[in-house]
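Worked problem 6 (solution included).
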Amino acid sequence: MRRALALARRGLGKTSPNPAVGAVLVRKGRILGEGWHKRAGGPHAEVFALRGVNARDATLYVTLEPCSTWGRTPPCADAIVAAGVKRVVVAARDPNPKHNGRGLKVLRGAGIRVEAGLLAEEAAGMNAGFNKWITTAMPLVIAKAGMSLDGKIATRTGDAKWITGEAARREGHRLRARVDAILVGTNTVVRDDPELTVRHGVHGQQPWRVVVDARGRVSRKAKVFRDAQRGRTLVLTTNLSPVMWRRYLLRMGVDAIVLPQKGKRVDLRAAMKALGKRDITSVLVEGGGELLGSLFDARLVDRVALFYAPIVIGGRGAVAAVAGEGVARVGNAVRLRDCRWRRVGTDEMLLEASVAR
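Solution. The predicted structure is:
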């Protein structure tokens, strides 16, 4: 199963809105075939593992319950039955309430011995974006920031280059390559004019670039509106933005989605629902502090990826990594669980954790 999980990871960032899945076919301790889901619409992991081999009386290890219905490909459960597999070991069950357990039932109904739950937590964690999207119709939200030890992302003059080093920036691009979209606020684009693409020697699919701009403040000349990736750029705005500004974006191939307001800002819960409707299952929020703070205030953040550089910026006017309204009492603070710290580069640290619910 660990081999199947390793294979599944090869598909991370490439299969959306489908989950990443790996499969290994074994008989008498020898691997006969293996595979992973490589792209949405393509063959599933089980098909690759079964292809071109005699699977009679073999055991199939698969990281997710085999599908039991037609989608863009035939049901994998039927293919497993037809191949004569004797035993199937599944890590995680299908989180889709409409399908959960159906694939296992098909296999058991055909006389196949089925075991489920082996390394289930690890398998589910790998597909956290898909799992949330298929059950809530909203993407997994990952808050990412590179900050000083005192939680600042820019000095009092607005200088932010570079708080974290090259190794941390490269790791940030690896995170980009594994999500469906990168989300930023107006101030980030106005101040930094970022590209929001996968670079720094990291190879992977370019995620959607999503700009939250309630009033149409971002310049028409911004890179995200004019470069080669502008067709994969979305703007989440409101009726407060100028109609001519929205029409210009459409002419440039940038889709502007008008959403409800919350005060004078975009309703962020409506924003997440709009992204979910576009089959975006995971979002990496890269700033700035006001957007991150608003998402935390709305309890929309699911995970964090926080890079800490060994510097102290200080200053009352310095920019905090997380702003927003915050909480009035420590007891109401957002708490993290499953915290994993690791060194990045020479002296920097990365905290990856889930938000406790």
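Discussion: The mean pLDDT is 95.
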